[in-house]
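Annotated sample (chain length 377).
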Amino acid sequence: MKKTVLVAGILATALFASVGLTACELGGGNYGETFEGAISSETYASEQKAAEAFFENEVADGGIEGYNLSYQKGDALTAEEISALRLGDVKAEDVVSAEHGKITYSPAVRARAAQNGQKEVGLIILGFDNGAFRYYVPQPANGEQITKSYLDSVCDLSAYHNFSMSYKMTTSMNGNASYLGHDQIINYSVTVSMELKVAENAAMITLDTSMSGILPAGSDMPASGAGKVTIFVVPEDGLLVAYSSVNYSQFQRNDYAFADYSSLSELLYFEQPDLDYTFFEKTNTGFKLSSDKFDEYAEENFADVFESVKEMMPDIKGEATYFVSDGKLAKATVKLTASAHMSEGGASASMKVGASGSCKYFDFGATVVTLPEGIPF
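Output written by the structure step:
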């Protein structure tokens, strides 16, 4: 394998770091949860059945069949504690029993069970006169996997119809390559910045990319450069239409770029990985990617590049932490590191990659988007 091919392969997979974990960070802030819990809409014939339904609907990935689990009863709730629950249409006086409970679970496949170990998650089981039971989803405890209801509450799109978000992600690659006694240095960085503003009438997105450094001869990547994309998104006839400008060019209409979005508030997810509750555990300021779920998380969100990254850079690690304020996303931090050493046919290359991202969500209810001339509304 020639040196240029070897290095090009490492550089291509290294760029996974700059696009793979585009989450966020901001400093300071007052963190606070507003999730008050949720009661099941269905009733069940026993406490055990209610506990299994809770696990399947709120915790499990792909049903309970893939897990070994057991339910243990805990302390009973007082009448005052029952009255404080968010019961919806259910009346507190109709609850005849209520108990804290705990589900202990692990993957049923032995190899996965040995890797991940046992975990626990808490819940509440409510009993009624007719012999029916419902589960209640409380605020997850620190260290527990977050539940579907909790994440749905944090990402309730009604809270994101007017907000701003900004992030900056920098990926650096450092290493060297050698072929037949000739050495070359790799010292390269890529920075991607985005600003998103969502208002009731329109949204604005700006993307800035810059790159600089030293690359081996023959690399297809530019040694330096910068680019800017500006996008205005407006609703027209029930669809979202984009008007885009590249490097300050005239705005061009695109009817399809946001065809998968049904509302402006869904732009919360633009350029971000899916937030899957099965990947995250609760912290005292929000939630974070579980350490044993990184590979699964990357494979699900970035399958096209993750396998090649793992093949060429087996020592790859990452973390993502989200912070919650007033029940909404406030900030997140992301870090990724990877390294590799390869040699073949007289060529060798070593590479270290580091990526860190910072993002904030702000100006809730105070974001304004002003459309430039020529873009209809």
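Annotation: Residues 47-59 form the longest helix (13 residues).
Annotation: Helices lie at 3-14, 16-20, 47-59, 79-83, 110-116, 148-154, 294-301, 303-312.
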